[in-house]
Amino acid sequence: MTTPPPGLRERKKRATREALREAALRLAVEHGPDRVRVEDIAEAAGVSPRTYNNYFASREQAIVAAVTADRETRIAAAVAARPAGTRLADAVSEAVIEQYTNPGEREREALLPIATGTALRDAFLDAAAEIEPPLTVVVAERLTDAGAQTARVLAASVAAAVRIALEGWLRSSAGAPGASGADGAAGAAGAGGPAESLGAKGLVVPSGSLPDLLRAAMAPLAPAFDAAEGRGRP
């Protein structure tokens, strides 16, 4: 299915949202998340606080939006790009892992505040729910006989599994000294390895292998995807 290009109004809305989230992350990195006000973000983006509230409900939501940066759309696009014969469970799992375990520079900058700040961490976990709508569309296109409700249930289950994996990954631990700062956290975001522990200032960084946690969380969904695709039927 070909999606028509966005109109001028939609392009302006996207540009405003991007300006707000980029300003939020820049200010959070420069001054610390707790020292950033909504008014500061709005001013940096050249809009009013009222306009800001049309896009984000909090400063944490805007900061996290910059980190995730349309990740849900990229996941859906990656699934849609897989060859038609690809097992859907594998296509979804690979797309999720790919998009969650290749941190860019801004993810590296924001990872420690997200891992150690309750409000930011909660907003980051809540953002996993955004996977559901675009993934529902691509899953429904693949499951032409299963119906839209089945596609939505599967997509919602993926979003829930991702959240559970992220909760485990971000859970604070009191291990021995390990890699410090954003570099250590970003390393855990990639291929993963042994638990990383305390940062240079005693901040707990994410521990464990995120790819492994995501695979484990999504593994129980594979039979449901297979059944919806009709795999294994005589």
TrEMBL record:
Q: Name one Pfam family in it.
A: TetR_N
The answer to whether the entry has keyword Metal-binding is no
Q: Which InterPro entries match?
A: Homeodomain-like_sf (IPR009057), HTH-type_TetR-like_transc_reg (IPR050109), HTH_TetR (IPR001647)
All residue ranges annotated as the HTH tetR-type domain in the record: 14-74
User: Keyword set for this entry?
Assistant: DNA-binding, Transcription, Transcription regulation
DNA-binding positions: 37-56
Q: Which Gene3D superfamilies match?
A: Tetracycline Repressor, domain 2 (1.10.357.10)
The protein's name is TetR/AcrR family transcriptional regulator
- The organism is Streptomyces tubbatahanensis
